[in-house]
Design goal:
The structure holds 2 protein chains of 2 kinds. Chain A has no helices and 11 strands. Chain A has strands spanning 4-7, 10-13, 19-25, 32-38, 44-51, 57-58, 67-73, 76-81, 90-97, 104-106, 110-114. Chain B is built from no helices and 12 strands. In chain B, strand 10 and strand 11 form a beta hairpin.
Chain lengths: 115, 113
């Protein structure tokens, strides 16, 4: 199946700093990429949807200026958490829209801890 | 809006027991339905899917049937193994232009030897 990678897998940062998370589709072109946030023992909450070369569409309640998403190519999307605070600590997961209808391929996730 | 409700866990079973994880959905259109599995420390993997009413998705001994009349997509397996221990997520996609997925809260399955 299609493979999506995320980097880093785990990051710890100080409050007030910015963190960038990369999401890559390794063997397919993802015209659409999705960013999710998962809290402990909870479901995945969609944060935003991005299409290559255009601005991301954010879900209600997600701060656009805090979670910057760039989808520069068909194989790379980045999520930058700006001025991170402890409440931003979470598990961030990306997925890429696959060639099969309605199918997404998920990355392994990035654990962000803000001290 | 569209939503997915699945049974709360954890579900604890002995090896070779029968598994059912209930999932019901609310949708205005004709969604596609999915079960994803998340093994410890790993990302989500598609387990099975069904795109229209009465379709049955199956994979690795797991099955789920798209029931439009009861708006359900219950996951079943006849004989679970320890290696099936994971979190299972039911999800739907309305098939719109963005193919957004809406997830249930997840059900933790723990299979004991």
């Amino acid at each position: 199946g299609a493979v999506v990678s995320q980097h880093p897998s785990r990051v710890i940062c100080k409050s007030g700093t910015s963190v960038k998370i990369e999401c890559r589709s390794l063997d397919f072109q993802a015209t659409t990429m999705f960013w999710y946030r998962q809290f402990p023992k909870q479901s995945l909450m969609l944060m935003a949807t991005s299409n290559e070369g255009s601005k991301a569409t954010y879900e209600q309640g997600v701060e656009k200026d805090k979670f910057l998403i760039n989808h520069a190519s068909l194989t790379l999307s980045t999520l930058t958490v700006t001025s991170a605070h402890p409440e931003d600590s979470s598990f961030y997961i990306c997925s890429g829209g696959g060639v099969a209808q309605n199918e997404q391929f998920f990355g392994p996730g990035t654990r962000l801890t803000v001290l | 809006g569209d939503s997915v409700t699945q049974m709360e866990g954890p579900v604890t079973l002995s090896e070779e027991a029968f598994l059912t994880i209930n999932c019901t959905y609310t949708a205005t259109g004709y969604p596609s339905l999915f079960w994803y599995v998340q093994y410890p420390g790993e990302g989500l993997q598609l387990l099975l899917k069904a795109t229209k009413a009465d379709d049955k998705g199956s994979n690795k001994g797991f099955e789920a049937t798209y029931r439009k009349e009861t708006t359900s997509f219950h996951l079943e397996k006849g004989s679970v193994q320890v290696s099936d221990s994971a979190v299972y997520f039911c999800a739907l996609s309305d098939g719109g232009a963005t193919n957004k997925l809406i997830f249930g809260t997840g059900t933790l399955l723990a299979v004991q030897p």
